[in-house]
Design goal:
With about 625 residues, the chain is α+β, with helices and mostly antiparallel strands. The protein is built from 18 helices and 26 strands. About 25% of the residues lie in helices and about 20% in strands. Helix 8 packs antiparallel against helix 10.
């Protein structure tokens, strides 16, 4: 095993060094010459506004929503996203047109879509996949969030279009594990050369619909993107201007003033006023986000199950839904298993459910020795007041409002609460060093696009891999006590070992039951995903699927047409967002099929040959 590992590392290192040595010789569009910007009239310039100010365009280092949006907009993933409608795959989001595996999921092949090019005119190849998932880039131990490196025994290019990964264990979801769903997109040589810590603000080689025209300057409120001439279908906008604001509350001003064509995710409190403008329309994806209170499950008093359950009973979620979310969301009372009720068959209602019941909360607290003193303040057995620190992010106005409601509810019960509002980036940065003892605080945060509720494997993952603002601080514990965490890990391993939907359903039901009873987090609500667009300048807007799980729908953006040149100004149906052109729906080549046969692989994941109907 040691010899194999050394050979693996050596082969990857040699391949990487050879590629990087060749990188400076590449020529063509968008490599280093930012001066050759396209001339784009204002009528063909699309304007998008989101929040907050980005810290990085690199998924390995980004901690902000805007950074995730930019990363997904510029580069595609190695395996397609799952859509919210029915769990189907959108192959237009992927650089591959098929992904295959052997019978026990230990050998995987990823086949690059024929004819796919980077924006500099260079072909996308299997080597790009191998370079991205090398030990010096995404699988570097400092950035390997999903633990993929420990599974990879070897990897190689079967040919210029097919990358092979040989695993040392069964993983039926390896393709999802390394994809942009929760990890990384495939990067060009120019990004790999900068290393995994790079912010990629100069990302002018892309395979998405646009590339960066001029390097983004940290702290700036805008970045200009130029149309990628090799993207199919060719985007209707020759230029995309992305504006960044500090908070969701600022998006409404851009919309109502007409200074943006699309904005999001918009603040629920502004929707009614925004829609008073007849040109502004809303895309509302129901219950696809998640608002939680997180804590360190190994730290007293959060390490007591009864204490966590008391927290769930203590908070008036209906008040959060009406006041913080303006009704745009789904209550978390019956879905503390961390799978939204809008997830269809993967959601289980057969789990412990909670309602706003402070009497029940007090009873649970008394069972663990926490009682009210004569002054009405909750206290431990030694008479010390129960004082909690509550932190939320300033990026999303509804989180600040929700935190105020939580503070009031807990104070009514008798807790002493101190609150603090910080930027999401600051919260994430403070966690590793436990700045101001943040690892022992309650953190309230809404993940926008972080969850993929239609996918059983992502639903099964610990929240700090998928939707929480910070990484886990309880060691290897997602559930607590340890015996429950062992039961959780057993179900997680079982899902890793199967892609059978019926079996996945069994295991995800068990995980939901554990989550709901032992509450690794308290889910307060499943907010809607809200994006607003203005029809004054652009037409062809989709009715759904503009933004799906950290993915700004490239195909939907490319389909937009200037009103001045469009043959129709009617709003299109939701199917437009995920339609496929003949150019990107070609099947596997004969050589690739031969390669599959040679390895005895099953072509289980394949790009559909016709339009995906809704």
């Amino acid at each position: 095993m040691v010899t194999q590992e050394k050979r693996f590392i050596a082969s990857v290192s040699i391949l990487l060094l050879l590629l990087l040595a060749l990188a400076p010789t590449f020529s063509g569009r968008g490599v280093t010459n930012y001066a050759n910007a396209q001339s784009c009239p204002a009528s063909q310039t699309l304007r998008l506004t989101t929040f907050p100010l980005p810290a990085s365009f690199n998924m390995l280092t980004s901690t902000t929503l805007s950074g995730y949006i930019m990363a997904a907009l510029l580069q595609n993933t190695v395996y397609p996203y799952v859509t919210f409608a029915n769990g189907s795959l959108d192959w237009n989001s992927s650089i591959t047109n098929w992904v295959s595996h052997n019978s026990n999921y230990t050998v995987w092949l990823f086949h690059v879509t024929p004819g796919l090019q980077w924006s500099n005119g260079q072909p996308v190849t299997s080597q790009d996949i191998l370079n991205t998932y090398s030990l010096t880039y995404a699988l570097n131990s400092s950035y390997d969030l999903v633990g993929a490196a420990s599974e990879v025994q070897s990897m190689q290019a079967v040919n210029s279009s097919t990358a092979q990964f040989v695993l040392n264990q069964t993983d039926a979801h390896f393709a999802e594990r390394i994809s942009l769903m929760i990890f990384e997109n495939v990067q060009p040589a120019s990004a790999i050369a900068q290393g995994p810590a790079a912010n990629l603000f100069n990302q002018n080689v892309t395979d998405g619909p646009y590339y960066i025209a001029q390097p983004y300057v940290s702290g700036s409120s805008q970045v200009v993107l130029e149309r990628n001439p090799d993207y199919k279908p060719l985007p209707g906008a020759c230029e995309l201007i992305v504006n960044f604001v500090e908070s969701s509350s600022q998006l409404s001003e851009f919309l109502t003033s007409g200074s943006t064509d699309i904005a999001g995710p918009v603040d629920p409190s502004s929707v009614t006023a925004d829609l008073n403008n007849p040109s502004i329309h809303l895309i509302d994806e129901k219950g696809v986000n998640i608002m939680t209170m997180q804590y360190n499950v190994t730290s007293y008093p959060y390490n007591m199950t009864a204490f966590r359950q008391a927290l769930a009973y203590s908070v008036n979620q209906s008040q959060i839904l009406s006041q913080a979310l303006s009704g745009y969301g789904v209550l978390g009372y019956s879905a503390e298993g961390d799978v939204s009720p809008t997830a269809g068959p993967l959601y289980s209602a057969n789990i412990p459910q909670y309602s706003f019941n402070q009497s029940q909360a007090l009873s649970l607290l008394q069972s663990i020795g926490i009682t009210k003193g004569t002054n009405g303040v909750l206290q431990y057995k030694n008479g010390t007041a129960v004082s909690l620190s509550l932190i939320t992010d300033s990026d999303q106005t509804f989180d600040v409002i929700a935190a105020g409601i939580v503070q009031d509810n807990l104070q009514q019960l008798g807790f002493q609460i101190s609150t603090q509002v910080l930027s999401g980036q600051t919260i994430t940065g403070d966690f590793p060093g436990n700045v101001n003892d943040i690892q022992h605080a309650l953190v309230l945060y809404t993940s926008i696009g972080g969850a993929f509720f239609q996918n059983a494997w992502t639903d099964a993952q610990p929240g700090y891999h998928v939707y929480l603002l910070s990484y886990g601080v309880g060691g290897n514990y997602w559930e607590y006590p340890p015996s429950v965490n062992d039961e959780y890990n057993s179900n997680l391993t079982a899902i890793d070992n199967t892609a059978n939907p019926a079996q996945e359903k069994t295991y995800i039901d068990s995980i939901q039951a554990l989550n709901a009873e032992y509450l690794p987090v308290v889910t307060l609500a499943y907010p809607d995903e809200l994006w607003a667009y203005n029809t004054q300048h652009w037409t062809g807007w989709p009715s759904r699927y503009l933004y799906v799980g950290s993915w700004l729908n490239d195909t939907a953006l490319a389909a937009l047409k200037p009103v001045s040149t469009a043959t129709s100004t009617s709003t299109t149906s939701g199917s437009t967002a995920l339609s496929y052109s003949a150019a990107v729906l070609i099947g596997a080549s004969a050589a690739a099929i031969v390669a599959v046969a040679a390895f005895g692989l099953t072509a289980r994941y394949r790009r559909p040959r016709g339009p995906l109907s809704r």
